[in-house]
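wait is this the right file?? whatever heres the structure
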């Protein structure tokens, strides 16, 4: 009886003192791979499949998989909306600040795009910035920030800005880990 009593008293300590893989200094993985503010509204997203993995497909010939990594942030899963696509140029996945221009079809560095299927307007990137703040070559995790503006008619001398994306953050695995 004494042994059972001792075991019952010790059980809570055993259950609640188990160690986890989150050792000292371990990084907390955010719930969302990408967050931002779109015209003041909160945007929280993972890939269409609910994770933070790079996309191994690319529908635009301008961004061949050999040269670019696609990081997708789609709010609401497979059929969700809106979506922010960030193409990182493989040769420039390094800590630094990279300007984003409106010429998405002739990129010289990283490129970012917003897709909003809730309206009939096009969302062409006018300008912006992608900042890579950390690259871990062991875990293949890239982190950074971004901001950009879009217009449905960027070729006008004074384009009408229809979306302003601010406070953007991302944390993605950019390659499969060996």
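ok assuming it is, sequence goes like this
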């Amino acid at each position: 009886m004494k042994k059972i009593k001792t075991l019952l008293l010790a059980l809570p300590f055993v259950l609640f003192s188990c160690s986890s893989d989150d050792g000292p200094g371990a990084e907390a993985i955010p719930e969302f791979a990408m967050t931002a503010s779109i015209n003041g509204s909160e945007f929280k997203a993972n890939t269409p499949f609910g994770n933070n993995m790079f996309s191994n497909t690319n529908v635009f010939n301008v961004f061949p998989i050999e040269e670019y990594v696609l990081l997708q942030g789609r709010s609401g899963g497979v059929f969700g909306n809106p979506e922010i696509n960030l193409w990182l140029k493989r040769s420039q996945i390094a800590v630094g600040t990279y300007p984003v221009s409106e010429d998405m079809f002739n990129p010289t560095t990283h490129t970012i795009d917003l897709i909003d299927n809730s309206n009939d307007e096009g969302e062409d990137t006018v300008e912006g910035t992608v900042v890579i703040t950390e690259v871990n070559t062991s875990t293949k995790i890239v982190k950074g920030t971004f901001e950009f503006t879009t217009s449905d008619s960027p070729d006008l001398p004074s384009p009408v800005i229809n979306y302003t994306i601010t406070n953007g953050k991302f944390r993605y695995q950019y390659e499969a880990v060996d």
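Strands lie at 34-38, 41-45, 68-74, 83-89, 96-101, 111-115, 124-136, 141-151, 161-173. so i think its the right one actually
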